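Before the break, one more example. Copy the sequence into your notebook; we will annotate it together after we see the structure.
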Amino acid sequence: MRIAWNILPSVGPRSGVGWYTAATLDALKASAGPEEHYLEFPGTAGQLLRKWWFVIRPWMIKPGKAKTAQATSGNTGSESGETWKSKVLGWARTRQESYLSGMLDRWHNLGLVDLYHEPNFLPVPTQVPTVTTFHDLSSLSHPEWHPVDRVRVFEKRAKGGLERSSHFFTLSNAVREEMVSVLGLKREQITITPMGVRPHLKPIEAQEQQSVLTRLGLPRGSFLHVGTLEPRKNLLMLAKTWCDLPAEHRSRHPLVLVGGWGWRCDDLREFLHTTGFSKGIRHLGYVDDADLPALYSSAHALLFPTKYEGFGMPPIEMMACGGAVIASTAPAVREVLDGQGHLVEIEDQDGWRSAMLKACLHPEWIGQLRTGATQWASRYTWSETARTTREGYARALGFPVPMKRAA
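Here is what the structure looks like once it is written out:
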């Protein structure tokens, strides 16, 4: 079995899709049998182009100012959102797709590949049998959260990707049910492959925590949020609610936001600059992955008020570090936590304020939320992700599905 993987999502600063791509492929290769081979593409040249994109992206697309599917501005381009920058990006995407398609077809003609796995939603056209991972359907279900260009590309390529793919992967049952109802797929066409926890994410000692906190200028005991600053993360509500806490609690438990600026962040950006920062909110931006264990381990609690997720990595990562989680009732998050942690309705601002106050006033409650956290997170491993991914490959190729080994 020879599987070709598009590794471009793992190049450059990584979010959920990038970690899924890198960690799943590493786990597959580490546990591969003698007849199992993985081919990574597009190779060094393609990876250099991808890294170049991360250099020019802040200039090409200004965070927080990009057009969204329901909010366009008429003074910088047409009403459809076409600007010279979006045209340049469209041309680059077309060239990249053509390059990747040609590479896969050459491998296919040489008999080097049996299956192509696209880990990031939209597979390129190819003669090679194809399987695709859908992390979520927010581009279709909530286009207002995304830039016009991204939604247009998704809508344009999604139908072809669905027709070309013989099997699909997703990270939670919540998204699988969406794929059935929205995309018209059958459940047996979709294999669920939950994400794992990277090995370095574990509880660390106070002394090691302190060296990271000192370097970042942070106190111990923050309310932490990890994730891109974008509309679906519900951070404007969180920031306003935290700012409404008494000053003594805000001083003891500052709100720390870890993650880069995403799309449509004008309201959040304005609130932080006019109110949030002066009241003690800290925005660290994208931090080194090696610093995350210290941030998780030293935090009072992770606050995760997201409106929508395909899986939701940060709560599981926080638990892997022994931390307490207060999260929203978004379907995938509720599914993954399954009773561990404390859940609050997404838009219940009073409920979020009450949960934060309780966390401030009753440290024993936070202790209860931490109980069993590491054991719960240990259920999520990349080796299990690899195992369920192999099951999907077998279904796509018409092979017998491997039996799960007894624990």
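The radius of gyration is 22 Å. Confidence is low (pLDDT under 50) at residues 44-81. Try to locate both features in your own notes.
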